[in-house]
Amino acid sequence: HTRIQTQTQADTKTLQQIKMSPVVATSVPHQDPPSYSMLFSPAASSLASADGSAIEMEVHWDPSLIRAELLQATSILSHRGLKLAAKWAAEQMVGIPMGKPGRLDLFGQQQQQQTQNSNNLLAQEWSQLTEQDWYAKSLMDMGEYLHAAAALSEPTTDASRMMPPLDSISPFGIYLRAYCLYLAGERRKEEEFLQLKSEAQNVKPGRNPYLSQLLEELSAAYKEEKLDIFGLYVYGLVLKEAQKSTLPCPHPPHVILLESILQFPQNWSAWLDLCEVVVAQDSNIEQEVEQTLQPTLATHYMYHFFCAHLMAHHHQAHEDALVLYERLAEPLPDQPLFQSSHLKAQLGVVHYHMREFEQALAWFEQIRDPFSLEQKDVYSNILYVKEDRVRLSELAHQATVIDKYRPETCCIIGNYYSLRQQRQKAVLYFQRALKLDRSYTSAWTLMGHEYVELKQTESAMEAYRRAVTVSPKDYRAWYGLGQTYEFLNMHLYALFYYRKAAMLRPYDARMWCAVGLCFVALYKIPDAIRAYERAVAQEDTEGIATQKLATLYRQEGREEEAAQCYVRHLELRYMVTNPNPAQQPTLDDIVHGVVVEAPEAEALVFLAQYHKLHGEYDSAALFCSRLVEYPGPEKEQAKGLLRDLRAQGRRYDSQPPTATSTNKSAFEFSP
Q1: In angstroms, rounded to a whole number, what is the distance separating the alpha carbons of residues 114 and 65?
Q2: How far is 557 from 569, CA to CA, in rounded Å?
Q3: Closest by Cα among 473, 528, 456, 543 to 495
Q4: Which of 103-107, 144-148, 449-453, 625-629 is predicted with the least confidence, judged by mean pLDDT?
Q5: pLDDT exceeds cutoff 60 at 440
Q6: pLDDT tens-place string over residues 416-427
Q7: Which of 389, 402, 455, 476 has the fewest Cβ atoms surrounding its Cβ within 10 A?
Q8: Counting Cβ atoms within 10 Å, is residue 468 exposed (0-12), middle (13-18) or buried (19+)?
């Protein structure tokens, strides 16, 4: 199903040279109609071959073979008890379109062979299982994890301790015992958390009580080469948790996880754990992971899903993730491939983080499965921003009917009450979500927002701090901490947190506006100017940064730059009310069409004075005439300027004149 083709002198095909970047390159058609072929690499950095040239690849995706492969993976993962990975593989499988009638007949024999191989593989594994393995497996299916682990351990009469594994245990038994013991420890950890009576006691996360024992046993089994593919996965999972608990690790977690992934790429749970390890470490780990995966899995669809997930949820590279997700959904025009609810939800999430709410809404509305709650909390955030109370109410009711004890459901209901200004009820439901999943970052952040609205700053700061503890790369929590300290007039502290948010989201103008505001409060005007210039450069569509920057330029005596900013501010405000003009608006169109509020009135007065000073009386009169009916002190200033212009021999009535020259008014502003 995948093919890596390195170009040689004997090649007759022409392949475009690709450097490893997150951007998808041009798709190259293949002779076989039902197949998908493209050239791209989703890697995060460049990867060169031994001779220094870039590796050149051609991706060949066959939908029928991918479907058969995912069917086999679903069977194996279900047998191993990896429910999340099995559900993910099955969801992608059913999301692949069947194509035109008869189209898959060409591959019917091939697909049948894949299915037969899957059945043979499972039959071979089942034939090797012992009676104890089957007994432990049945206990695991019943959720009796500690009992299942004990069934594969040395006998004991003391239920308070777990004995070592049986001497004759099989590789399947090693995996099953370790995974069940790990799950039993996680359950014990959650039970201890729920028993805590004081909120201050649960600040420090608990530790899996069987973690040290699992580390010792799995490390010994790894050295003796007794771990199979899924035994390696569990060992990598245990190493990851040990690393988070600051326990000494015999092996790096990413190395073990990579070893498992290279042998069985369809285990989505292993990819998610690898992603968590990569994010927690420095960039050197990421480069090592990339170099390990590239030679074998560079063209594999699972590697592309992994890179898209890493970019979207951890690196904030949303545009690159969007390109990858769109190519996975439709590698070639009018030839869809992955059309699952998961992929559509991820596309909606990416657009949401890019603040493209209409596109995000469109993707969520394409999900035809009303019983899926995946990412529906993000969908509720979009409806909240759009203040769509009716649809948010319908979504909350639907989620309650499906599963009222899901964290996503509680978050949706919390958003609904927040939109209705019922803050206490919103906090209550966010707290319920956190009781169900205390690592739910969005619930911590949204609860912090509600505490800010309730003026409970101490509780708000605690909620935001919990959010950054769970997810240190969540810019919303850092930004919320900055807002809370700004509310307390502690601008130096606010600046620290705003700069954290700006580092995580450097392309967001709002972050730099907040940084600039703190610099102004600290009387560091040159630093504030640089921050606002950065905001303007990052597409400040609302015109906030341009207005603030113009004010600072005026204070510094930089009149021409202030005039440029004010004109740009008026243009941006005009585009808010006229998002799709038929043609490029002129200065007259902007002045006549902009909605005048206090910032716009300030801009019009300054521009009128600026143009009068430079002898451009028609332009000055144009700006003044727009303020004649404005109910504010700027109205009298505009009338005074018009009287001065009349005194110089020019006549202007209440009708807005037309600027004779806009060469110096229609500025091209680029900081």
Answers
A1: 8
A2: 19
A3: 528
A4: 103-107
A5: yes
A6: 999 999 999 999
A7: 455
A8: buried
DSSP result, 34-98:
T-EEE-B---SS--B-TTSPBP---EEE-HHHHHHHHHHHHHHHHHTT-HHHHHHHHHHHHTS--
pLDDT greater than 60 at residue 45: no
Higher pLDDT, residue 511 or 11:
511
- The answer to whether residue 305 scores a pLDDT higher than 60 is yes
- Rounded to whole angstroms, the Cα distance separating 35 from 18 reads 21
Contact between residue 516 and residue 544 where contact means Cβ atoms under 8 Å apart: no
The answer to whether residues 543 and 532 touch, using CB atoms and an 8 Å cutoff, is no
- Give me the residue label for tokens 């110096």: 664
Residue 444 · residue 377 · CB < 8 Å: no
106 DSSP assignment: G
pLDDT at 26 over 60: no
Model pLDDT, residue 636: 86
Q: What is the C-alpha separation between 128 and 137, in angstroms, rounded?
A: 14
- Identify the helix (H) or strand (E) that includes residue 571: helix 559-577
pLDDT of residue 32: 39
Q: How far is CA 494 from CA 511, 616, 639, in A?
A: 12, 43, 42
CA distances from 310 to 43, 57, 91, 316 (A): 10, 22, 20, 9
Beta carbons within 10 angstroms of residue 449's beta carbon: 20
Question: Could you give the CA distance from residue 568 to residue 532 in angstroms, rounded to a whole number?
Answer: 14
Measured distance CA(240)–CA(281) in Å, rounded: 11
Using CA atoms, how far residue 645 sits from 10, 103, 609, in Å, is 79, 78, 11
Distance in angstroms (rounded) separating the CA atoms of residues 180 and 173 = 10
165, with CB counted inside 10 A (0-12, 13-18, 19+), is buried
Distance between CA atoms of 610 and 629, rounded to whole angstroms? 21
* Residues 505, 475 contacting (CB under 8 angstroms): yes
d(CA 35, CA 40): 16
Directed axis angle between helix 475-487 and helix 491-504, to 10°? 160
> What tokens appear for 669 in the block?
């502003």
Q: How far apart are the first and last CA of the chain?
A: 49
CA distance 40 to 513: 36
